[in-house]
Design goal:
Shape: globular
Keywords: ATP-binding, Carbohydrate metabolism, Glycogen metabolism, Nucleotide-binding, Nucleotidyltransferase, Transferase
Helix content: 10-25%
Structural class: alpha/beta
Number of helices: 10
Distance between the termini: 55 Å
Largest sheet: 9 strands, mixed
Enzyme class: transferase
Pfam family, one: NTP_transferase
EC number: 2.7.7.27
GO molecular function: glucose-1-phosphate adenylyltransferase activity
Number of strands: 27
Length: about 425
């Protein structure tokens, strides 16, 4: 059954709500958990579910995403497995960019249908979760459905941010509303005793879909003016097709903005995190790097995740994620922070030359204080720099950093001279 499934992962749009992390990269290419990229999550979920044929549809700032996929997902020459990139392209039929999720699949359909499959699994490239898709596809087949939508129970507070569905006793979806602001009481569903005890009474679409092959081809061809699955294609399909709700009750979060991204990363440092990176049944695959182990000197660590190749001399690192090749100087304190690390090490000669000129090195210098912050890759933060994010800071976008919801985001490759205070 799984051999009849083809995966399609949507690379997303401009990702402006996740800016400045998306100024030079697409959302799925944003580093997460210190050593992965967001796109590794849906790809790994597919591989763990036995789905070994995938397309990734890319468009905005796609160079780093394309490079990551090319350098990461290699399979045997004797295998039919692949993770291929389908970039937006001009053709005789389509002269423009992707206009939405459905339009992206429509424009790439001539590449997709050249492969044999009965079912197509459409995923987002910017969500954090661990799901076995085999069960979802089995339920789809058993119900003789034409579409299956993965749904997750949410609270009334969260319901206003999602597409909300209603299903009958057979879990067939009967109605849909996009981000309801009023009349929520009409959209309460029977989500089960456990979910209801947590106040999660509404079924939200997770943006994860299974389509029958011929049904998807037909529905995309019927109304070419419909550009988006969630807002246009699915509401119409619910009226005259068999659309199944597959309820998922595990951890899932949509990395839609800086605060949700920040919360998801720091949540990984919990004693028992909601997203379990240490589950051997749900391996997260990523690029294999030949990095040395991390070296830590004189540092108190508390609730910290430290990736490979770090050199840490800080006095304290608490509730923080340190990405690959992160360097932190002496007597520095890092709390409530995601330090993404860097793409390379500086040589001893470079370090001596930069130090003699009084320039900041790649990484974080001595005697710094970093709190409520995201430090993007390849930043140079000098000595005695103080970054203290919080509600006291107004949102804003500046030359070397931005503030969103009180979180200070130092931009990729930015230089903060010694003594800088934010």
């Amino acid at each position: 059954m799984i051999d009849k499934v083809l995966g399609v992962i949507l690379g997303g749009g401009q990702g402006s709500r996740l800016s400045p992390l998306t100024q030079t990269r697409s959302k799925p290419a944003v580093p997460i958990a210190g050593k992965y990229r967001l796109v590794d999550i849906p790809i790994s979920n597919c591989l763990n579910s036995g789905i070994h044929r995938m397309f990734v549809l890319t468009q905005f700032n796609s160079a780093s995403l394309n490079k990551h996929i090319k350098n990461t997902y290699h399979f045997s020459h004797f295998s039919t497995a692949f993770v291929d990139i389908l970039a937006a392209e001009q053709t005789v039929q389509n002269a423009g960019w992707f206009q939405g999720t459905a339009d992206a699949v429509r424009q790439c359909m001539h590449h997709i249908v050249s492969h044999e499959f009965d079912y197509i699994l459409i995923l987002s490239g910017d969500q954090l979760y661990q799901m076995d898709f085999k069960e979802m596809i089995e339920k789809h087949i058993e119900a003789n459905a034409e579409i299956t939508i993965a749904t997750i129970p949410v609270t009334a507070k969260d319901a206003t941010d999602f597409g909300i569905l209603k299903a009958d006793e057979d879990n067939m979806i009967t109605s849909f509303t996009e981000k309801p602001k009023t009349g929520l009481e009409d959209w309460v569903s029977d989500t089960g005793e456990e979910m209801q005890s947590e106040g999660r009474n509404f079924l939200a679409s997770m943006g994860i879909y299974v389509f029958n092959r011929e049904y998807l081809i037909n529905i995309l061809n019927e109304n070419e003016e419909e550009k988006d699955f969630g807002k246009e294609i699915l509401p119409r399909a619910i009226e005259n097709s068999r659309v199944l709700s597959y309820q998922y009750e595990g951890y899932w979060t949509d990395i839609g903005n800086i605060s949700s991204f920040f919360e998801a990363n720091l949540g990984l440092t919990d004693e028992i995190p909601k997203f379990n990176m240490f589950d051997s049944n749900h391996t997260i695959f990523t690029r294999a790097r030949m990095l040395p182990p991390s070296k830590i000197s004189g540092t108190t660590l508390e609730k910290a995740i430290i990736a490979e190749g770090c050199i840490v001399q800080a006095s304290r690192v608490e509730h923080a994620v340190l990405g690959i090749r992160a360097r932190i100087g002496k007597h520095t304190v890092v709390t409530n922070a995601y330090i993404m690390g860097s793409d390379r090490y500086q040589t001893l000669e470079e370090i001596q030359s930069e130090t003699s000129k009084g320039n900041a090195l790649i990484g974080i210098g001595d005697r710094c204080y970093i709190n409520n912050a995201i430090i993007d890759k390849n930043c140079r933060i000098g000595n005695d720099v103080k970054i203290n994010g919080g509600s006291h800071l107004e949102d804003g976008d500046f030359e070397t950093y931005a503030v969103k919801d009180g979180i200070v985001v130092v931009k990729k490759g930015a230089v903060l001279q010694s003594g800088t205070v934010i």
